[in-house]
Design goal:
Blueprint lengths: L1 E4 L5 H10 L3 E5 L10 H8 L7 E6 L4 H11 L3 E4 L5 H5 L4 E8 L15 E6 L26 E3 L7 H8 L3 E4 L4 E3 L2 E2 L1 H15 L1
Amino acid sequence: MKVKICGITNIEDAIFCERMGADALGFIFYKKSKRFIEPGDAKKIISRLSAFTVKVGVFVNIFPEEINKTAKKLKLNVVQLHGDETHDVIEEIDFSVIKSFRINGEFDFEILKEYKNVSFLFDSYSNDEYGGTGKNFNWNLIPKELDGNFILAGGISNENIEEIFNKVKPKAIDVSSSLEKSPGRKDHKKVEEFFNKINSLRR
């Protein structure tokens, strides 16, 4: 199970998360987010990261040409779309895509069939935010036929990671607010404890 730490805003957190074992780091380019980072600042951080760390840019309802321009300039590996983007929009993006869906009891998983060549990320539904809510959703809603072929987000923490690892079994998890001391600032103690727990589960 791969681990992405999202909402990176500073080099200290980026280097620490990378050293602890993060497979991917996420940079949020949505200006209304409490974890927004200017592309220029993200570029400085990315330039100091290992080539083996996956750099993910998070966008919400942005024109494909702007996404491509930013991703190329920053040397991102993956684009994560957290808005209402359609498959037609994704077709115009020149990078690997993670498409996020906010899940509640009314979500129709049949819509996934409209998307090709993307990775699915399932997050908690909120009327107010496009992610980073710190709340989880009913994981039993996820169709068994997906067979773990998705990324799980929303309220993932030290308290529920064992259940996620043993029962939900996603191919990756996306963690942000549960490892913070304030929005955009990671709590290094929480990060270390989180990775210690994951490493113990992997043994």
